[in-house]
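Here is my example:
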Amino acid sequence: MDRLKALPPQIKQYLIITGNYWAFTLTDGALRMLVVLYFHQLGYSPISIAMLFLFYEVFGVITNLVGGWLGARFGLNKTMNIGLGLQIASLAMLMAPVELLTVLYVMVVQALSGIAKDLNKMSAKSAIKLLVPPDAQGQLYKWVAILTGSKNTLKGVGFFLGGLLLTLLEFHGAILSMLIMLCLVWVFSLFTLKEDLGKAKNKAKFSELFSKSKAINVLSAARLFLFGARDVWFVVALPVFLAATFDWDHWWVGGFMACWVIGYGIVQSFAPAFTGKKSGHPSSGRSAFLWACYLSVIPIMIALALHYNVYIQASIIIGLLLFGAVFAINSSLHSYLIVSLADSDGVSLDVGFYYMANAMGRLIGTILSGWVYQMYGLEACLWISSSFIAMAAILSLFLPQSHNYQQ
């Protein structure tokens, strides 16, 4: 305890923000798995279950855009705590009797959860910018990578936790346990998170929602294509393909994808070691271009294996693991670049705009994943994925190629 008290204020704030983000992410992953499994038990069709998450993604786009303005105007401590409060409210709503848990009702709950998730994420990513000195870009990259990687690892753990809690405590018991845990975290955060963290010196105007920085706009467009490339085959097409082609049951599919997310998060945490930190040079737009080029080859190789019927199961599994590792490095690199490029005064405006593009990419990828797979199969999804990554690579050429980023 004495060692914790002796830590510098910046480290203490980083630990609070990270712990806050971890707790939220754990409940977010568990809630998603709980909803999927519970409503599958109730006999809901796959389409109905998919519809439960539509508002979650749609409101993610809106929240990232508006949330950046809120963070700059009122402070990131407030937006982060509001996000936690909304997640608590969404969990409380799910304590309603079973007969009230209709598709429309749960869609509204998921919309609230989506708003909460993106407020929390935007606040956490933006806050790190303010805790690291402008000349410590290597340290900034390390902190961003740890936060991002640990978040995705815990999201995968949350998938397992959701299934375990449903088995041990049933639906309402599982929800209640998460509700109590998150309430404790929320109260702690309210009293310990620094006041007015990230609040802009000048009052942020609502008209400033859209970034006026060319570098931020280019990076945001690249992020849209990058995450569209992942979700166009990962969200709907891959789970359905694994179940239909390999005859895997739901637990096998869910467990495999949870392990993938955990591994993906671990690689993200170590991304700086692959992209320049050891050499003492923070990563730049050139790094983003090169790693996107590496990534674009993997979906093509999997698609060719499917087309020519070459060890399909092994090709899918090995290809997915390779894709996850290289995609994790791309994602972590992008997360560092947005924090580094963002303006320190009102950082959440730039970060919020960027994650709005991220959410839009997920939404586009999710929609295409279902439609393209149904019409043309997994192979077509993979070719689209590769073309999206190629677009992200081309856009990366227009990013700053030096390390003298805007502060």
Observations:
- The mean pLDDT is 82.
